[in-house]
Amino acid sequence: MRIGLLTEGGYPYVSGDAGLWCDRLVRGLGQHTFDIYALSRTERQEDQGWIQLPPQVGRVRTAPLWTAHDDGVVHGRRARRRFSEAYGELLAAVCGGPGAASPGAHEVPGDPADSVGAEADRFASALYGLAELARDEGGLVGALRSENAVRVLERACRAPGALRTARTARVPDLLTVAAHIERALRPLSLDWYEDDALGSADLCHAAAGGAAALPGLLARHFLGVPLLVTEYGVHLRAHYLAAATLEEAPAVRALLAAFHGRLATEVYRAAVLVTPGNAHARRWQERCGADRAKLRTVHPGMEAARFADVGEGVRGSRCADPDTLVWVGRVEPAKDLMSLLHSFAEIRRAEPGTRLRIVGAPAEDPDAAAYLAHCKALAAQLFPDEAEGVHAVGDNPVSFEEIGGPEIPSLAEAYACGALVVLSSVVEGFPVSLVEAMLCGRATVSTDVGAVVEVIGGTGLVVPPRNPRALAEACVALLRDPERRERLGAAARARALELFTVEQNITAFHGIYLEIVSHSPVRRLVVDDEGEPLPFGVPAEARVPGRWTETRFMTARRPRWAEGAPVRATLPPSTPVPVSAGEGA
Fold this sequence. Notes:
There is one protein chain. By secondary structure, this protein is of the alpha/beta class. It contains 21 helices and 14 strands. The strands form 3 sheets. The chain has a 6-stranded parallel sheet with strand order 3-2-1-4-5-6. Strands 9-8-7-10-11-12 form a 6-stranded parallel sheet, sandwiched between helices. Helix 4 packs across helix 11 and helix 17 crosses helix 20. The longest helix has 26 residues.
C-alpha cells in the first residue's frame, strides 16, 4: 500500500522531532511505499538537509512553516465575503469557549457536552470552509495577513459570550494572535490535496498532532483518505508547557490555547485511529476529546542491539564501579538537575565514596546553556575539589561529560559507567533514557512524572519529583544492596525487550495499517464495458504487493471524475480477474 507520512519539524530532516522513529518505521516496512509530506520549522533545519532515505520512499514534498511568501492572490468581493464569514466562524468557536453562545448562533439545550460538541462542529465547518476557499482561489496567505483578518478577530473577541480573557485583548495582542493563527493555517494553502498527491495514498499517517495532522484532515475532507495520528508527545500539552515559559499577555495565551484545543479536538475526531505512545499521553488525548474507542497505545521502539553488550554483560563492556551514579539526557530545566545535585550531597554524607557522572549536552534552547553553567557552579559550590593528601590534585565527585569523548565513546558506554541510573525530571513524556538504561540491564531510581511508572513497571524505584531527600534515600538503598540492583536490572532488561523494541513497534503499525485499509471504503470507481460500476472491481489481492490485477482505476472526487468518458476495466490477456468470495460486504 502507499502511505502518506505527514511530519512537522522532523523526518526527513537531519534535525527535528520524531525523525528517528519515522526512519525506523519506513525502513522496517519495506513492503509498502511511503510518500513524505514534511513541514519544516526553521530555515536552519532546511539548510541542514535530509537524512539518507531508503528506496521505499517514493517521493518527498516539503513546505516551510517558518515563512510564507505572499501568494499574490487578490480576492474578489465574493471571495472576501466567504473568507470573512468562514474566518469569523472559526474565531467565534475559538473565542466562545465551552458552551458560550455567539452572535447568530443557536443555543444548544440540555447537556453542556452538547454545546461543546456544537462548538467543535462549528470550528470544523469553518476550518474546511477556509480550506475550500484556499483551494478555489489559490491560497489564503494574503487574506490571513490582511487587516480584515485582524478586524474579524477583534469582533470575535468583543462579541457577547466571548471568553472574559479574550475581551481584554489589545491591538498588539490581536496582532500576535492573528500572526500565530496565520502560521498554523499555512498548510491550507498547499497544493498537496490533489489526486496525484495525497489523493494517491491509501492512508495518511501523521507523526504528530497540530500542523502535521492538518494536511491529513484536508486529505480526508477533499479526498476521503483515512487518517492515522501518532502522538508520542501530545501536541496540545507541548503548547501548554511552552506557553508557560513565554511572557505573553493573558489574552494571547488564552486565545492560542483555545485555538490549539479546538484543532486537537478536530484531529482526534477525524482520525480513524489515534496511537499514543503511553498511558500518560492517552489520558491527555482523552481529556482533549479523543474517543476512547479510537485510542491504541503503541510504545516507541528502541534499538536493543546497540545496548546488547552492556545489557548481557559481555566481557570488557561493563564498568565494575559499584559506587557511581549516572544521569544521561539533555541538560535543561525540566530535568531538574538542581534537585539531583542537592540529593547527591545527602548521598555523599551516607556513602562518601560515591561519584555522580552527568552525561549530556545542552538542549537547543538558548537558556539551556545558561542552565548548564548554573548546574556546574552549584556542583562546584556543593562539592569542592577533594584530594587525598596535601600534594595530590583535587578531584570533584561530580563530572559533566559528553558522549563521543575517549572515556564515553558511545551511548551504551555512558550507561555502563555506573551501577545505578538516575532520572530526576519534573516534566517528562516518554522517558527514552530510562528505556535505554533498562536495555543496558541497569537498576534505576526515577521521579514519578509522565510515563515513568508505566515504563518501569516495578523494575526500579520511583520517588516523588522535587524531593531530594526521597531520591537520596532510594539511591542509598540500592547502593548498599548490590544483589537487589542486579535483580532489578535483569528484570528491567527483560521488560524493555518485551515492550519497547523497534520490532514490536513496526509490527504494531503494520497491523494497524492493514486494519485501517481493510475497513476503509474503496475510494476508486471501476466500471465495466457498459459503463456500470463493476462488482468486486477491487479485489483483496490488490492490497498485497504483486501484479495481481491490471484493473485501471478512475478516481471519484467532486465532479472531476465525470468530466471525461468512464474508464473501462481492462483484463490482461487470458488472465481472469481474481474475485474473493468474501468481498462485497
